[in-house]
Amino acid sequence: MHTPTYLAAELRLPTNWLDYTILGIYFLVVLGIGFAARRSVKTSLDFFLSGRSLPAWVTGLAFIAANLGATEILGMAANSAQYGVYTTHWYWIGAIPAMVFLGLVMMPFYYGSKVRSVPEFLLLRFDKAAHLLSSILFAAAAILIAGVNLYALAIVVEALLGWPQWVAIVVAGAFVLGYITLGGLSSAIYNEVLQFFVILAALIPITVLGLKSVGGWDGLSDQLTSARGDNFMTAWGGTGIGSDNPLGANWLTIVLGLGFVLSFGYWTTNFAEVQRALSAKNLSAAQRTPLIAAFPKIFIVFLVMIPGLVAAVLVPRIGTAGSDLQYNDAIPYLMQQLLPNGVLGIAVTGLLAAFMAGMAANVSSFNTVFTADIWQKYVVKDREDSYYVRFGRLITAIGVLASIGTAFLASSFSNIMAYLQTLFSFFNVPMFVVFIIGMFWKRASMKSGFWGLLAGTTAAMVNYFYIYEQGVIDIPSDQGANFVSAIAGFVAGAVVMVAVSLFTAPKPQAELQGLVYGTRSPGMAEPPAEGDDAWYRKPALLGWGAVILAAACYIPFSF
Amino acid sequence: MSDHYSEDDLQKEITELETKSATAARLFDIRRIIGGLFVVYGVIVMIAGFTASDADIEKAAGVNINLWTGLGMLILGLLFLLWLWLRPTPPPPAVPEDKDASTP
Known about the structure:
The complex is a heterodimer. Chain A has one domain (9-415, 541-557): Sodium/glucose cotransporter (Up-down Bundle). Helix content of chain A is 70%, strand content 0%. Chain A has helices at 17-38, 44-49, 56-67, 70-83, 89-92, 96-112, 118-125, 128-161, 165-213, 216-228, 251-269, 271-278, 283-314, 330-338, 343-379, 385-406, 416-440, 448-468, 478-503, 539-554. The longest helix of chain A has 49 residues, at 165-213. Chain B is an all-alpha fold.
């Protein structure tokens, strides 16, 4: 399982001056956005949260783009080439319910309490120990994940364009560093919105041409069913408990591990995502941020899954010893085979933009947590506001340098997506359990937050490094192991929180206003802004609409 | 900041920062950038489509993909510019004259 991710050398793209012109224009625009956003940065709130003033469509598209990094695109195409239509689970059950829950249920507490970050919410709800531990865990995870993006970028760019790895790392790192230190979160978010559209412009031609080259959807479906078995083209086939399927997971681990624990942990408590919603201009816009993002998320699966499936048809032995191509090569391979110069330049630009956005989302959330949660609260307190803006710019530079260092850790995993999900099971899942219990159970005591977080993180790591890697229990794949780690982390965190709560003092009622379900904070009382009462801006309608649409999408792949 | 950090402290701090914030007043409208970039890309890629060789079209499963992608990008860019024209950026709320741009 653990072989390096080097892309095959013959994937070199036939790029010419036209493609490089398109790429060059993009890099100029990226930096231009940074310079233009610079004049809007006056306070630390501007730098870290865009002054809580962006419209919902901008934060919503940034929310989805922060998730649509190149690791997601290449990784989910790899997943599809390896596991087939099971990939849809990461979207329809593994994203939509959690995104809707974030928007409808959790956002009033996040946005209304005016916290600047997810750990800061834990400071209000629990105590300093929980706050500091979650801040440090998040900062570490953000740097690790930014490193994954950077490493993956270097490998892909070396294979596709022939740039040495260090050139790709320095160029991408310098541009991300440049636009975030200049314009802060506004600049990161604006670039994410732009990247969202460039990525679509890159993926749609690949998907359309890929389908055409294998005889349309029917041709794709027939060839894969005969080559990989009946279950490959279904979402739920072969997922009965005890039956064998390529994913190594059954319906229960899919629903609980992926659909509930991993997905809620990622979407509702991962600050790299939640930060986009916290920068919205009012509560209604903050609630709509993940809901607006949910609709593209439902359909993006086709743009990554179909290229992966097409690659599995065109290169039947992809990912096995019989082929030089790894699963991660699916999309680069189609780019090389199908795209002429011009669209090829758009696709290369989209891929590089996606790498940079995936990294920038993590860097811009890291600098906020490190400055507002660690530095300002425990190290250098009570300085003037402009000091923290300067410190935020400095720590951005340090964060970019540190992520170059962590890039090499990613090299030991063959499936980038599996590595990311492993990190999420370590870091996001325990955070989620602490959140969900703290938000819905008033009795959860001040001390229970810290111990729940510690126990959950430890349990997920013990499951992965000891029970799975040492083979104590036989779990067939990395992904299957991640689902189990997630469930183990969730259960351990929950049990420890309840136990500690029963023996320690609860937080006084008066201090829980607006932090626990059933209470309200002053920030929630604001009247809706003009125009926000239009029917298409009603959060409940958007949210339930997304859930129903996602459920309906399962129908053609279930029978 | 006292040892005990409460929600009231935070509400006060953020509300004060919100009144000084400059993003709403000074941040440009991203629709202009998206519109502009996609119009430029659309034109470039369409030109590549008009001058496509037979080899280019054969490579792309018989489709003149540059032409279609370029057209799609051009339309998207124009739609963003149209949206900006129909619903211009709302005028910034009145803010007090900025005396301390970023000096401490």
